[in-house]
Design brief:
The protein is α/β, with parallel strands linked by helices. The chain has a domain of 193 residues: 3-Layer(bba) Sandwich (FAD/NAD(P)-binding domain). Helices cover 31% and strands 29% of the residues. The strands form three sheets. An eight-stranded mixed beta sheet has the order 4-6-5-13-14-15-12-16. The longest helix is centred in the C-terminal third of the chain and has 26 residues. It is globular, with a radius of gyration of 21 Å.
Length: 393
Amino acid sequence: MNEKFDCIVVGAGPAGSMAARTAAENGIRVLLLEKDPVIGVPLCCAEGISVWGMHQFFQPDPRWISAKINKVTLTSPSGHKVEIDHPNAGYVLDRKLFDKDLAIQAAAEGAEVRVNCCAVSLLNEDGKIKGLRVNENGEEKEYWAKVIIAADGVESRVGRWAGIDTSLGLEQMDSAFQYLVVSEEIDPERMEFYVGEKLAPGGYVWVFPKGKNSANVGLGISPAVAPDVKPKELLDAFVRQRFTRFSVAEIMMGGIPIFSRKNVRLKENVLLVGDAGRIIDSLSGAGIANALLSGRIAGRVAGQYIRGKNLRVDFLKNYETELLKERGRELRFYAFCRNVFLKMKDGDFDAVVLFLKNYLGGKKIKGIDPFAVVKAIFKSDPKLLRLLKHVVW
C-alpha cells in the first residue's frame, strides 16, 4: 500500500535530520529516508565545527564532542608558523553519534525515520512531482508527498531527477582524502593547517584531534589546479613526514562541492539542502553548520507551505530567499577568497603566514572576523592585489 506524507526528506545527515525535525515541529507529517543501514556510516568529513556554529542550534551533548579546540597552528611552505591561542574555537565531533542523535531527535518530534531505503526515482503525475519511488530493504515502494527535501549529498540524484543542474566542473569540486591516525604525537586541543603548492595544490592539509592519541588527518586539493595529482599519495607523504610512529584506523575519501550562485537549491516542490544545494564554505570546505542552517530553513518553509493549504508552490522560494539573506554574503565571500587562494604561490602563502604571525600570534583570541582579516592581509602585501584581476565578486 502506498503511503502519503506531507514532506519526504532524503538523507539523514545533519541537513536532512534538521530539516525533518523542523518540519515535524511545524506540525506536518514527515518521512526521513536514509539509504544506508546505519545513520552516520559511512562518513567523509573532517568533523570540525566552530563553537558559534554549534551553539546556533544546540547545547552540545558531551557525547558528541571528540575534542574541544583551544589552539590553532598554520604552517607555510617554508615552515613559518603562526600559533593562535583561541580558547573555545571549536569542536571536533563524533559524527557517527552526532548524526544518529539528530535523526533520533527528528523521530522524537514525530518524523518517521526509515533506514536502508534508497530513493530510486521521483513520482510524477500530470507533469508535477508527487513523491518518491524507493527501494526499501529490497522491496520497491512508493511514497507520496507535497514537498521533497533532498539532503542526499554532493551527487544529489534527487536534484538531478527534478531537473536541477547538479553537475560539477573541475573548478567547482575539491577532492579529499583522510585517515584517522593513531599516534602519541597529537596535541588533543590543537587544530593544525598546512598550505603549499606541492603539499596540497589548491587546498590544504589538516590535523584535527579526535581525543587522546588520534586525529583526522586529511587533505583537499583542487583538480582544476592539479588534475593529475592523487590526494592519497600526497597524504601518505605528509603523514610519513609529520608522524614518527603512527597507525591508520580508518580511511575516508570524497568530493567537496563549491558554493554556487546558480539556482541549484530549488525547483518547484523540491528543495536541496547541505552539500546537495552547494551550501558550503568554499575556502575551508566546512559544511556542518551550513547544512544545519539550510535544513532548518527548508523544514520551516515546508511546514509553513503545508499548513498554509492554499499557498502556491512559489511560496517554497522563500527557502532560498531566507537562506541567502542570512548566509549569502558570507558564502559569496568565501567563494571569492577561494578564487584568490587558487592563484596563490608558495611565496604568497609564506607572506600571509608571516603577516598572521604578527597579526594574531601571541594573543589570546576570542573571535576572528574573516572579513577584517582578509582586508588586513591585502593591505599588508600589495603583491596579493594582483590576484584580484582573476576574481569576480
